[in-house]
Amino acid sequence: MQCERARELLSPHLDGELSAEERRVVAAHLEGCRACSAQVHDYQRIGQTLAEAGREPAPKALSTRVRASLAREAQGEPVRISLFGKPGRAGTLSMLRSLTRQAAIIAAACVLSALAVWWTMSNLGQQQRLEQDVLAAHVRSLLQDSPIQVASSDAHTVKPWFAGRIDFSPEVKDLATEGFPLVGGRLDYVGGRRVGAVVYKRRLHIINVFMWPSASPGDTAPRLLTRNGYNLLAWSRGGVDYWAASDLNGGDLAQLQALL
Amino acid sequence: MPCMEAAFNLAFWLVRSRPDAEDIVQEAYLRAFRAFDGFRGGDIRPWLLAIVRNTAYRWLSNRRRSGTVVSLEEAFAEGSGQTADDIAADEPTAEERLIGAAERDYVLRALAELPPAFREVLVLREIEDLSYRDIAEVTGVPVGTVMSRLSRGRGELRKVLTRLLEKDEPNAM
Predict the structure, then answer these.
(1) Closest CA–CA distance from residue A195 to any residue of chain B (Å)
(2) CA B114, B116, B118, B123 torsion: positive or negative?
(3) A15 neighbors B150 (Cβ within 8 angstroms)
(4) Residues of chain A scoring pLDDT < 70
(5) What are the pLDDT digits (tens) for B2-29?
(6) DSSP label at A253?
(7) ipTM of the predicted structure?
(8) Which one in A95, A107, A160, A227 has a CA-CA gap of 20 to 30 Å to A184?
């Protein structure tokens, strides 16, 4: 391959945008051509420097400012844009103007509801965030070498381990005879607070039971949710909120809930 | 707010002024808000960055009319012809010269000197780590054009960088 042709391909080569065949030919050329490989090195080094330099940091107030202008827009108040002049207003007839205004409000309401979907990505509702947290904590525990910090099938070992680590005494039971052997316990972080996690097993399935003191008094019946293929079961009893997470089927999870 | 850091960065690199970039981001988000029905789903970042880019170019062309900046076409023509290939193989490479230099400052200065059409693809590729397809969506050109602009942009950036380093260290090597 000629240098001239190779040089056209160096940049896409770096970006991994070449076909397998082109990639092979370019790599072979680079092996034997000092000039081209120096060029690739420079490109790499420059790219790396740019990536490390990162983004020009946005001013903190910008987000607030943009939010405020969107809120004004959503209220049907045309936002005057300093850069490009005023957006067009309705004609001179006042009736026409009020009709336009109403239409604008309705349109803005539609846009706002669509935008709510958008904002969900950056601003989940509290309940959803909790579900997300529980799911994340469960998955994280599976990704680690061990989902537990205190390993014991003895409830009288696991329960005292939590004393002094969290501000309440969690429910820990050994349910081996019922088919839910206790694996152990650990601390986790859910909903912005430190929580207890008690780990049980059902055949090959790991079950995390997260628990923390309830914000509101009163028991609630178990609710089963499915998120990303995992089952989440939430209930509260005796002033404690429980969330069980597992890839176990809902029926078995409900059975564990009844036993706890 | 989604993608605000990326939006501000792109606007800043296109207009090279923080206060102007702020105005452009505010304007772009309003436009995004009004045009949200046009969003086809998927990754919101390219869609939003395309609006930021268009807003920035509109702002640049407004400013050009008031005579302070050269046109895109002129800017393009200015950089044409020679490329990094002109650097002889035996000269020290930019990499060698960079050792010990305030590398980041030089690279950012060199990037700022490039025409916007090169600057934007380099920012989107190297800083935002977008794929060619996403860059094509943001800049409204075919993927093949993204590829050639990145290729030329990298060459130009290397050339400008070499010039800057040579100027500041006339006795090096």
Answers:
(1) 30
(2) positive
(3) yes
(4) 1, 76-99, 101-102, 105-106, 109-110, 112-114, 116-126, 145
(5) 788 999 999 999 999 999 999 999 999 9
(6) H
(7) 0.79
(8) A227
Q: Which residue's structure tokens are 């207890």?
A: A196
Would residue B144 be called left, alpha or beta, if left means φ above 0 and alpha means ψ between -120 and 50 degrees? alpha
Confirm if A14 and A43 have CB atoms less than 8 A apart: yes
Q: Do B22 and A114 touch (CB under 8 A)?
A: no
Domains and CATH numbers, chain B: 4-69 (1.10.1740.10), 73-168 (1.10.10.10)
Question: What is the distance between the alpha carbons of residues B102 and B33, in angstroms, rounded to a whole number?
Answer: 41
> What are A250's two structure tokens?
């809902």
Mention every residue, 6+ apart, whose C-beta is less than 8 A from residue A48: none
Q: Which residues of A60-91 are buried (b: 16+ CB within 10 A; e: fewer)?
A: eebbebbeebbeebbebeebebeeeeeeeeee
Give the model confidence (pLDDT) of A161-211 as tens digits. 888 888 888 889 888 888 999 999 999 988 888 899 999 998 888 999 999
Minimum distance, in Å, between the CA of residue A36 and any CA atom of chain B: 9
